[in-house]
Amino acid sequence: MSSMPTFHFTVDCRKPGSHVYHMTLAIQNLPQGKHTLTLPVWTPGAYEVQDFARHLFDLTVEVDGKAVETYHLTKNQWGFDTYQDGAQVTVQYQVYAFLLGVDTSHMDQSHAYFNGAQLFFLVDQYKEQPADVSIQAPPGWHVSTGLDMVDANPFHYRASNYDVLIDSPAEIGTHRVITFMVDQKPHHLAIWGHGNEDADKLARDLEAIVKAQRDLFGGLPYDHYTFILHLTDRGTGGLEHLNSTTCGTARFAYRPRKKYRRALQLFSHEFFHLWNVKRIHPEMLGPFDYNREVYTHLLWAMEGFTDYFADLTLRHSGLFSTKEYLENLADNIKAYEKKPGRLVQSLAESSFDTWIKLYKPDEDSPNRTISYYLKGDLVGSCLDLEIRHRTQSQYGLDEVLRRLYTRYGQHQVGFPESVYQETVEEVAGSSFEDFFKDYINGTTPIPFETFLGYAGLTLERTYKNPEAEEDDQAETKTTAKPLPWLGVDAALADNRALVVKVSYADGPAADLLNAGDHILAINGYQVATDTELKDRITLDHNIGDPVEVTVFRRGKLETISVVLSAAPPDEMKVVPLEAADDSQKTLYKAWLRADWEPAKK
Ligand SMILES: [Zn+2]
Fold first, then answer.
1. What is the CATH number of the domain that holds 76?
2. pLDDT category of residue 1 using cuts at 50, 70 and 90
């Protein structure tokens, strides 16, 4: 008779000022033979090899009470031997944790936060075995995590398998916790830090997000959910988990409304992930290989569509007005059309190469790559509008996600990549071969006016009027006349130098000005800020004018002649067509849950 080994981790964070977790792993009943301890090199949701083992030190192993030799197998794996069945093994190690991010671990005098991928070893191939986690914290500290509590002990938790263990970060400290119920299920908002947030309002808004997304899928697939929120000096983004998320925003990201909208988008995005990517995902995205990069062509559907539905469900919940929703859409179109990389890299390639491109950007990235978040979000809206148009508003993209969820997500299995297009075609009842070829596997520019037209909308592309006065009417703040353009983005660097950040491949200075050039003067006159540079170009010159740009390039003074070209539109608006027919109005209403209205005269 043999039974499976058991695993019990103890996470000791009682010396938070040391930034070191003291870890103990107690294993019961390990069979005789060679064993391997593996620490992940990446954490799901952040597609970047981070080599967490670089923070681990002081590893020791005892078998049946006696210290044994460990041998280092690879950068993230250690081996040891047992000489009889039923061995009791104690593994001790320490992990330095002072990287503040949603996908890293951090500990200081004020709290301890960890991601499982940095702390928890996988033993051999026992991925399906449950693991217990005990937490030893300073007096007065409490724990917030998505893990299930054991024996009503708030410092003892259990993960049903290794994937769940890795997928359940914990916030430990004196943080505030606000709890609200949806469908009799507790939702905890755990906030570390302070800023200009209204925590009670935030909890109410999160409740509205939970309800809107529950309505889209028809239920909540967990017993409890935890939002961990870090309020710090800068935003650190968000990371999704099975029944929790960690979001890091700037402390003062909650007022005014425009900033708060971005915070709501982040929470809505991460919550939507509990379906899209955590449960609805291609085969490569779970169960995971933690030892190396995993490749998928579908991150546009996992991340871009999550962005799309994050905004759409904010609209459906009433947290965004239609005006705000369409403003965000227009801003995204503007950002997409500004990037020459949209004509170079497809969404499928952008997904596949995320490990070496999106997660490792450089100064040329806008010219050669396109974000699967940005374009994926836009393709999500176009695909949704196309499905609604072809099905006379009977179905939308949400129906595709529901079917994938019912067939795969609920059964915790990934789907083969070809299933995505097949499911779209099944819902719409017609071929999407060209759509996928053009906008997902190819780089055909997206004809937004066509898709928006289905909903009685169109795009207006204009320019900020450089002559506009403060108190001008809205119409005169923009102009239809293209502005002259130098073709670079420049910004003040640390030493107050105005430095080229991007030289656009489709701009007039593509072969002339380089990222890193320190701009000193235009036509012999100093320009000290990016606003001054833009004013000199747009107010004092015309398209076709040559200008002399004086720069320091690697410390050498150079003067370079650039002939100004026409700038891409810098004002973009989604506006109603002059008139819409019944099918357009019906589609608009099914899509945005509001009545189509003609433009105000
Ligand atoms: Zn995401």
1. 2.60.40.3650
2. very low
DSSP track, 326-376: HHHHHHHHHHHHH-GGGGT--HHHHHHTTTTTTTS--TTHHHH---TTHHH
Q: Any idea what the CATH number is for the domain that residue 541 is in?
A: 2.30.42.10
Expressed as residue numbers, the domain containing 508 is 484-566
pLDDT of 541 over the 90 cut: yes
pLDDT tier at 601, thresholds 50, 70, 90: low
Q: Are residues 200 and 219 in the same domain?
A: yes
Question: Measured in angstroms, how far is the CA atom of residue 298 from the centroid of ligand 1?
Answer: 13
> How far is ligand 1, taken at its centre, from the CA of residue 95, in Å?
27
Q: How far apart are CA 336 and CA 332, in angstroms?
A: 6
Residue 411: exposed, middle, or buried by beta-carbon count in 10 A (0-12, 13-18, 19+)? exposed
Cα 69 to middle of ligand 1, angstroms: 42
Please tell me whether residues 538 and 496 are part of one structural domain.
Answer: yes
- Give distance in angstroms: CA of 243 to centre of ligand 1: 14
- Residue 275 CA, ligand 1 centroid: distance in Å: 11
Bigger pLDDT: 83 vs 476: 83
Looking at 240, 271, 302, the residue that finishes a domain is 271
For residues 503 and 375, membership in a common domain is answered with: no
**Burial of residue 375, with CB atoms counted within 10 A of its CB: 0-12 exposed, 13-18 middle, 19 or more buried:** buried
Does 456 map to a domain? Answer: no
Mean per-residue pLDDT, 82-96:
97
- What is the 571 CA–ligand 1 centroid distance (Å)? 27
Q: How far is the CA of 266 from the centre of ligand 1 (A)?
A: 9
Å from CA of 240 to ligand 1 middle: 7
Separation of 559 CA from ligand 1 center, angstroms? 44
Judge if the upstream peptide bond of residue 287 is cis by omega within 30 degrees of 0: yes
Total structural domains in the chain? 4
By residue count, the chain amounts to: 601
CA of 273 to the centre of ligand 1 (A): 7
> 340 C-alpha vs ligand 1 centroid, how far in Å?
24
C-alpha 436 to ligand 1 mean position (Å): 22
> Does 367 map to a domain?
yes
Would residue 591 count as lying in a domain? no
Determine the average pLDDT of the residues in 459-465: 92
Q: What is the pLDDT of residues 292-349, one digit of tens each?
A: 999 999 999 999 999 999 999 999 999 999 999 999 999 999 999 999 999 999 999 9
Q: Round the average pLDDT of the chain to a whole number and report it.
A: 97
Task: Report the separation in Å between the CA atom of 102 and the middle of ligand 1, taken as the mean of its atom positions.
Answer: 12
Q: Are residues 22 and 137 in the same domain?
A: yes
302 and 392 both lie in a single domain:
yes
- Do 124 and 217 lie in one domain? The reply is no
Does residue 88 belong to any structural domain of this protein?
yes
CB 199 within 8 A of CB 165: no
DSSP class of residue 295? -
Does residue 342 share a domain with residue 295? yes
One domain for residues 378 and 504: no
Ligand 1: centre distance to CA 70 (Å):
38
